[in-house]
Automatic annotation (TrEMBL):
It comes from the Eukaryota. ATP binds at G111, Q112, T113, S114, S115, G116, K117, T118. Residues 393-441, 465-492 form a coiled coil. The keyword ATP-binding applies. The keyword NAD does not apply. GO terms for cellular component: microtubule. Belongs to the TRAFAC class myosin-kinesin ATPase superfamily. Kinesin family. It is found in: Cytoplasm, Cytoskeleton. The lineage of its organism: Eukaryota, Metazoa, Porifera, Demospongiae, Heteroscleromorpha. SMART domains: KISc (SM00129). It comes from Geodia barretti (Barrett's horny sponge). Keywords: ATP-binding, Coiled coil, Cytoplasm, Cytoskeleton, Microtubule, Motor protein, Nucleotide-binding. This is Kinesin-like protein.
Length: 519
């Protein structure tokens, strides 16, 4: 196999006839050979029946001659009876697993409106598509790894391109987003939100939330036609000990793309729908131009910048990525023109070459590295606070003789010390909570989340007990010292009072003694 050929594969999925297509009299013009991965398209012939007075001319499709058939071969062909599980295993499973290991991967669904793209990518609750199955594989695979030193961080984003404008489907207020270069030959969408997820259910919740905001409209072919390109991205960071006291990080990125459907412009449609169709067709035309340039010998300039879609998918088309394009087609004669165009486009795309490599040494871009640095900083801060010197007692100044008042002052200072100790304890608790919050975002291969491990729980319990015992001990020690100092001060005051009387018995000296106690 040619270099890079195995990194770009093309599959064709033929959907079954819809219930409303059966009574319409349209013939099936496509046959799928799953054994040889071949699709045969039969061109329908429009034969007019005899005209009769008072009745308009009408036509019917008839079976074509063998000379009017075209045959196409692909990497994978899926027929009307192919299940969602078949599609995932043959088109997506290997790519998803490679993303866990640090590769870039993409699954792109393209084809005519109402040909099954969204059903293939997202599916339904009863028949889940590629996204929910990929989510299940990712988290089950991470949980099955036996290396406890490895940590995983999974985050997602969800965007749509509607009328050549990018919007964040998970943060509706973020619209008309810009594409920027990252300085390393790649691109990113500025201010696009990313969400850390811990299981497949969280991914599906985000998908459900974002899909509700996706632009749809009623068209001639589909009652709920997607009028935007949607790109759902799953980023998997894997960090492990590099053997030198640092962390080696790989970043795998999985893009799941549901393209808007191509459709002929309906001149009778409302202006908004016409504008949507025009922008979709222009965007898909630019997508085709990129594929054509990539597969034409001698062409050096690839027009990625001609549309936002091709700019975002630059790595997926001829770059560092393992890509599978799934072309979905309708089987009926009514859709023959769009079907044959899709088959020809998919045949050309087979010649795209991608060079996929593991994304290693990406620590500067990895969010997991940022979290680890923050955890280390917080742990150091916690250690310094735990082993730091006790706060000195504030000096008590008194000029009285009554012991009761002295006791009141001591009580006041102890309450102040209690407040300071409570604040110190609260700060420690806050630091521990922040560490737990950050570490809770990580997964360890073959284990639960860090905060769920018995070792972490035991460590937190020991720290709480140590702080409690240390604080109680400090209070007892300081209070005992204050009691002793009070006794000494009382003794000195009594002694001075006996020795500071004047010769004249009528004259007595009142002595004020300043006691300074360091807190």
């Amino acid at each position: 196999m040619c270099e890079g050929r195995e990194n770009f594969k093309v599959a064709v999925r033929v959907r079954p006839r819809l219930p409303n297509e059966v009574p319409s009299g349209f013939l099936q013009c496509v046959e799928a050979d799953l054994v040889h991965n071949t699709v045969v398209a039969n061109k329908p012939i429009l034969k007019k029946a005899s005209s009769r007075i008072g009745i308009d001319d009408f036509g019917e499709f008839v079976r074509p001659e063998p000379s009017q058939t075209q045959s196409f071969t692909y990497d994978v062909v899926l027929g009307k009876d192919s299940s969602q599980q078949d599609v995932f295993l043959r088109c997506a499973s290997d790519i998803v697993k490679s993303v866990i290991n640090g590769y870039n991967g993409s699954i792109i669904a393209s084809g005519q409106t109402s040909s099954g793209k969204t059903y293939t990518i997202a599916g339904t609750k009863e028949e889940p598509g590629i996204i929910p199955r990929a989510a299940q594989i990712i988290f089950s695979q991470i949980g099955s790894y036996s290396n406890p030193a490895g940590q995983y961080l999974v985050r997602t984003s969800y965007l749509q391109i509607y009328n050549e404008k990018i919007s964040d489907l998970l943060e509706p207020s973020r619209e008309n987003l810009k594409i920027r270069e990252d300085g390393c030959g790649g691109v990113f969408v500025e201010t696009l939100s990313e969400h850390v997820v811990r299981d497949a259910e969280e991914i599906m919740a985000l998908i459900k939330r974002g899909t509700r905001l996706r632009a749809t409209n009623v068209t001639r072919m589909n009652k709920e036609s997607s009028r935007s390109h949607a790109v759902f991205t799953i980023i998997i960071e894997h960090g492990k000990d590099d053997g030198h006291g640092g962390m080696a990080v790989t970043i795998g990125k999985l893009r799941l793309v549901d393209l808007a459907g191509s459709e002929r412009l309906d001149v009778d449609a409302e202006s908004k729908l016409q504008e949507e169709t025009k922008n979709i067709n222009v965007s898909l035309h630019n997508f085709t131009k990129v594929v054509t340039a990539l597969t034409t010998p001698g062409v050096k300039y690839i027009p990625y910048r001609d549309s936002k879609l091709t700019r975002i998918l630059q790595d997926c088309l001829g770059g560092n990525c393992k890509t599978t394009m799934i072309a979905t087609i309708a089987p009926t004669s009514e859709c023959y023109i769009e079907t044959i165009n899709t088959l020809k486009f998919a045949k050309r795309a087979k010649n795209i070459r991608n060079i996929a490599q593991v994304n290693e040494d990406m620590s500067e871009k990895a969010l997991i590295s940022s979290y680890q640095s923050e955890i280390k900083r917080l742990k150091l801060q916690l250690q310094e606070r735990s082993s730091g010197t006790d706060i000195d007692y504030i000096k008590l100044l008194q000029e009285r003789q009554e012991e009761q008042r002295e006791k009141e002052e001591v009580k006041t200072k102890l309450e102040m010390q209690q407040k300071l100790a409570d604040e110190a304890q609260a700060e420690k608790t806050k630091l521990i909570s922040r560490i737990r919050e950050l570490e809770d975002k990580f997964f360890r291969g073959g284990s639960k989340a860090v905060m769920d491990t018995e070792e972490f729980k035991e460590a937190i319990l020991k720290e709480q007990q140590r702080v409690k015992q240390e604080t109680a001990s400090q209070y007892q020690r300081k209070f005992a010292e204050l009691e002793k100092e009070k006794e000494r001060a009382s003794w000195r005051f009594t002694n001075l009072r006996h020795h500071c009387s004047w010769a004249d018995s009528k004259t007595h000296c009142t002595v004020s003694y300043i006691i300074t106690v360091h807190l």
